[in-house]
Design a protein that fits this description.
By secondary structure, this protein is α/β, with parallel strands linked by helices. 41% of the residues lie in helices and 9% in strands. The protein is globular, with a radius of gyration of 18 Å.
Amino acid sequence: GIHAEQVDRYLDHGYTVVSIDYRLAPETKLAAIIEDIADAVAWVSSEGRALFAADPSRIGVVGHSAGGYLTLMSGFAVKPRPKALVSFYGYGDIIGDWYSKPDPFYCREEPVTRQEAEAAIGGTTVSESAGERWRFYLYCRQNGLWPLEVVGHDPILDAAAFRQYCPILNVSPDYPATMLLHGDKDTDVPYEQSVMMHAALAKANVESELVTIAGGEHGFDARHEDPVVSGALERAVAFFDRYLQQ
C-alpha cells in the first residue's frame, strides 16, 4: 500500500485518499483487474460526495509499480477519466522484451522451478499478497512469462491481444495530465518505461512531467527522509494541486 508519510502529505493538502484493493494476478487475469479499477473510480464518482465530500469532477489517481501501471491504464480505460495521474515507477508497455523475455537481473537469483512457483500461489481469488507469492513473480521474470500469465495470451504469438493493455499505445490528446517518477537505476521496471511514456504523452500534446531520481532504485520513495526523494514527493503533490485544485 501507499506509505503513511505520503498519505499525510495528501491529507495536509486537503485531499481525500481512497485506497483501492484489486484482485491479484495470476489467479485473476488483467481484464478483470482493470474492471476493478474502473469500478472503484465509478464508485468514488457516484458515492464519494455523499460519503466523504469528494468532488467527482476532481479525481486524481496515484500508484506505485504495478499500481503505477494501473494508474496509467486509468487514463483511458475508466469513466469518468481522472483529471490527473501520478505514476511512481510504472510502465506503459507490457509486451516489451523487459517483461516477455528472461530478465538478466532476476536471472542472477537461484532459478525457481515451475512446481515451486505454482506452490507459492493458490487457486482462489486474493487481493492481498502474502507468504511466498513473490516466488511466482520471480519465476515469471526469470522465464519471461509474466505477460502470458497475467493476460492469458502469448505476447509473441498474439501481440494484438495486448494493445488494449498498453497505455503507451492508447495515448490521445484527451489523456489526463500525467507525472511520471522513476529512478534511473531501477532493476525491476526499467527507467526507460517512463521515458517512453513521457515521449508518447508529449507527442500527443498531453501535459506531462518526468521526474528522474538519479541513482534511484525500485521503491525509491520509501526513503522519504532523503531530501531528493522528499522534494520529488512535494512535486507530486504540487502536480495534483495544479490540476485538481481548480
